[in-house]
Design brief:
Oligomer: single chain
Number of helices: 0
Radius of gyration: 15 Å
Strand order of the largest sheet: 1-2
Number of strands: 4
Length: 68
């Protein structure tokens, strides 16, 4: 699901052409390298996704949200 509360914006997804089958059945979230940050919790390193806007959310005046 896209463009609903708690999900990704359609602007941040890869879509197929409505007239040509391209092998993608559903929207796929774009990989934005700068949308991840390294976190360490209890000695375990992992990447947390951040800086992705939510449906209805506007870009902050200091930082442009990915997909804007």
């Amino acid at each position: 699901m896209v463009d609903v509360e708690g999900e990704y914006c359609l602007d941040d997804c890869i879509l197929t052409s409505p007239t040509i089958y391209q092998g993608i059945l559903d929207p796929v979230v774009l990989h934005v390298k700068t949308a991840y940050r390294l976190r360490v919790q209890n000695g375990v390193r992992y990447y947390e996704q951040w800086r992705m806007k939510y449906p209805g959310q506007q870009s902050h005046f200091l930082v442009k949200a990915p997909g804007s």
